[in-house]
Design goal:
heterodimer; A: 250 residues; alpha/beta; six-stranded mixed beta sheet; four-stranded antiparallel beta sheet; 10 strands; B: 252 residues; MetI-like fold; 2 domains
Chain lengths: 250, 252
């Protein structure tokens, strides 16, 4: 059953008289609890597609459905993690995590407890009272993930959230993310330009090129993923396959 | 630590040189009174309470003008920042109103509000208005687009976005505008008093000129300078306090 359905969604900018098509009739479905990655070069339209899926941009054609309901505006069912952590520097880590709730209603003691539990899950139990600038880049990304998960969204959309981190930190965060999403059976669409990251994280990978989905690939590696898998033959075959489709003309 | 000693040392050296020049050349007190004479005049003015009402008046005019100008400037900045239509409609007029040398308006304000405090406060407020308007507008416009998208994603209302994102994010820039306004407000109050004042430090300077009392004039200049430094430092402290959360993690 398709939980998230992207049905012929297009998005075009108007540049003077001309229309520049950024996302071109994309068809894609994601089953509940699945983790899908979208890879493509910079400027291929993957961020735009993600924003269309989030309801931040209205598609010029086609639609996006979540649980059968058309996405017309941002909703609490959908969490979004941006390229940079986008934390509020003047608020504590705890207040940052609680932001989505505090914008909706008054905070309850149980909300604080929930946020503290979530911070513990991302390994930041001792940092609740700190301010974002006192944290490292990796820790800031963890706070951003905790903030997206606090409202327990059904779908998590992630836009290269780990791109700015060093390799080791990135791997730690990838493992934590997989663990958290498996825990809550969160459905994820994760955009990245890093092929190895996509293969490590995903159940299924889509390759995007000039606004179109050109290739789809099911990742048949065992789950949960272990670090050794990165050095396996199958892992590298899959990476190579994706690399070749990205290089291929058209 | 040591640089502070040198700073004060520089002042002492400067005053000593000034004193020496005055004594050695026997220059007229009317042209250049010695620091010792100035300080004696200042001290007696303070001790007898002669200067105090003037200091209070100028401070009050400055603070009232500052509060009114900053308050209105801030609100107008938010209004223009939030409503693109208003900004396009009114911004040319705002610019026009700021290019007029505001002190040139004092004679008109004397006709409208009479001599005294009201005219000075209005001029001071007008002078403080623009830095706040400009900085608030800039601050609200330059909020990180990703943070705005975050607030849209979280379904924040317009007011929530204003109060929980735009104003806190813009606070450092807005407060920089306040700092500029504080300096300008003292200039505004004193110079407005030259023309419209019957009392206050600015009016006293004109009076001392009329009486050819140069030591008093110098004493007044010292008082104005100290007043300015006190207000500026107070603003810096207030700024540091308001931005204490913003600054977390930036010290290292």
């Amino acid at each position: 059953m398709s939980f998230v359905e992207i049905a012929g969604a297009s998005y075009a900018y108007r540049v003077g008289q001309a229309r520049e098509i950024v996302v071109d009739r994309v068809e894609w479905t994601i089953g509940q609890g699945e983790f899908h990655c979208l890879v493509g070069r910079s400027g291929c339209g993957k961020t735009t597609l993600l924003k269309v899926a989030a309801g931040l941009l209205a598609p010029s054609q086609g639609s996006v459905y979540i649980e059968g309901n058309e996405v017309l505006e941002p909703s609490a069912q959908v969490g979004f993690v941006f390229q940079s952590p986008t934390l509020l520097e003047w608020a504590t880590v705890l207040d940052n995590v609680l932001l989505p709730i505090s914008l909706k209603r008054r905070l309850l003691p149980s909300d604080r407890q929930g946020a503290l539990d979530l911070l513990a899950l991302v390994g930041l139990a001792d940092y609740a009272g700190r301010y974002p600038r006192e944290l490292s880049g990796g820790q800031q990304s963890r706070v951003a993930i905790a903030r997206a998960l606090i409202v327990e969204p059904l779908v998590l959309l992630m836009d290269e959230p780990f791109a700015a981190l060093d390799a080791i930190t990135r791997q730690e965060l990838q493992d934590d993310l997989l663990r958290l999403c498996a825990l809550r059976r969160t459905t994820v669409l994760f955009v990245t330009h890093d092929i190895a990251e996509a293969v490590y994280l995903a159940d299924r990978v889509a390759v995007m090129k000039q606004g179109r989905f050109t290739h789809a690939l099911t990742i048949d590696l065992a789950k949960p993923r272990e670090h050794d898998v990165r050095y396996s033959v199958r892992f590298n075959q899959l990476c190579l396959e994706i690399h070749q489709t990205m290089d291929a003309p058209g | 630590m040591s640089i502070r000693v040198y700073t004060w040392g520089l002042l002492v050296a400067f005053l000593a040189a000034w004193e020496l020049v005055c004594r050695a050349t026997g220059i007229s007190e009317l042209v250049l009174p010695a620091p010792s004479v100035v300080l004696t005049t200042l001290w007696s003015g303070l001790a007898t309470g002669y200067l105090l009402p003037h200091i209070w008046l100028t401070s009050a005019e400055m603070l009232l003008g500052l509060a009114a100008g900053c308050g209105i400037g801030f609100l107008c900045g938010i209004a223009l920042g939030e409503a693109e239509f208003l900004r396009r409609l009114l911004y040319p007029y705002v610019i026009a109103s700021q290019v007029i040398p505001k002190l040139a308006l004092v004679p008109l304000f004397i006709v409208w509000f009479g001599f005294g405090m009201t005219s000075t406060v209005v001029i001071t407020a007008l002078i403080c208005f623009f830095p706040l308007l400009e900085n608030t507008l800039t601050a609200i416009h330059h909020v990180d687009p990703q943070k705005r998208e975050l607030f849209r994603m979280l379904g924040a209302t317009r007011l929530q976005t204003l109060f929980r994102l735009k104003i806190p994010a813009g606070l450092p820039v807005i407060l920089a505008g306040v700092r500029v306004a504080v300096v300008l407000s003292l200039v505004g109050a004193v110079v407005a008093e030259f023309i419209a004042g019957r009392a206050g430090l600015g009016a006293m300077i004109i009076a001392s000129q009329g009486m050819m009392d140069s030591p008093l004039m110098f004493a007044l200049l010292v008082a104005i300078t100290v007043l300015g430094i006190v207000f500026y430092q107070a603003t810096l402290f207030a700024e540091q306090w308001l931005l204490r959360h913003h600054m977390k993690g930036l010290e290292q």
